[in-house]
Amino acid sequence: MTWLLPDTLWHDGALRTGLAWRAGVVSLSSSGQRLSGTLLPGLVDAHAHTQLIDVTALRGLSGVWDLGGNPAVVAGQALRWAGPFLIAPGGYPSDRSWAPAGSCREVLSVTDAEAAVAEVAAAGATLVKVTAHAGGPVLPAATLAALVDAAHTLRLPVVVHAEGPGTVAAAYEAGADLLAHTPWTSSLDDGLVRACAGRMTWISTLDIHGYGEETPARGTAIGNLRRFAEYGGTVRYGTDLGNGPLPPGINAREIRALLAAGLTPADVVAAMTDNDWAAPAWVPAGLDLDPGRFPESLAAAGPIVGT
Ligand SMILES: [Zn+2]
């Protein structure tokens, strides 16, 4: 395979010229085959449920993280995956119709927390997903902390679905690494947002609130994410693919909401990539960094074809 020479290539947080790509490698090169438009590292949705979607039909994404599913089904469908939701007995989402069989594992005690994490790790998961939903049974603080400790012993990051009063603080205090959603049920205390920004990554999922319509929850989530980002928190693009009417691929509405939260186009690209060049994204018309046109421009990305 020859070097491909795109008009521009995303590198070190900006569009560059004079860089070439070949088989996963980026290099300075001036000889090769011209390619119109822009090449970017692979674009990732960090919140999906691959049991509920066709992963082979996701336009523009090089992969997804599966944040809750049956390991026997989701293994091999995601770049990273969490296996079952670890939940309080009877807790969310075991009470929801969309939760597929085998996607929840009740955690009964501190001792059982270690066993639950060991099961997830043995199945091959690279993330641990825990739910803290104030609308139903929630795990005691000691059990939540035991889950996080067991996961960290095995070097597995913990992603928490935190929903409702006190749940974000509980996730933070237990030592969790990521939130599966930007908090949306209330405007968080500033000290808590600042504390989270010092240590956590929040996965955005802003568009699930209204799917393009203004809603109070969307405004609350955008306000929380704005402060989290201003305090230096790490944001990852994620849409909860599989739940609700979301486009099967890059979601321009999610990108627009991230811009509304104060992220720049460069911040959005950073939130969508792991700088992995194995499966680059190609924007044939060239990536447009004008904030008004950027969401649709990036959402037009796809795999390299026709070379
Ligand atoms: Zn989800």
Return the CATH class of the largest domain. Alpha Beta
Number of helical stretches of at least 4 residues: 9
CATH superfamily of the largest domain: Metal-dependent hydrolases
The side-by-side strand order for the widest beta sheet comes to 10-9-11-12-13-14-15
Helix content: 25-40%
Report on the structure:
With 307 residues, the protein is α/β, with parallel strands linked by helices. It has 2 domains: 4-40 and 278-299, no CATH class; 44-272, Metal-dependent hydrolases (TIM Barrel). Helix content is 28%, strand content 22%. The protein contains 9 helices and 16 strands. It has a 7-stranded parallel sheet. It has a 4-stranded mixed sheet with strand order 2-1-5-16, with no helix packed on it. A 3-stranded parallel sheet has the order 6-7-8, with no helix packed on it. β3 and β4 (25-28) form a beta hairpin. α2 packs parallel to α3 (141-153). The radius of gyration is 20 Å and the shape is globular. The model has no long low-confidence stretch (mean pLDDT 95). The structure holds zinc ion. Zinc ion binds at residues 47, 49, 67-68, 180, 240, 243.
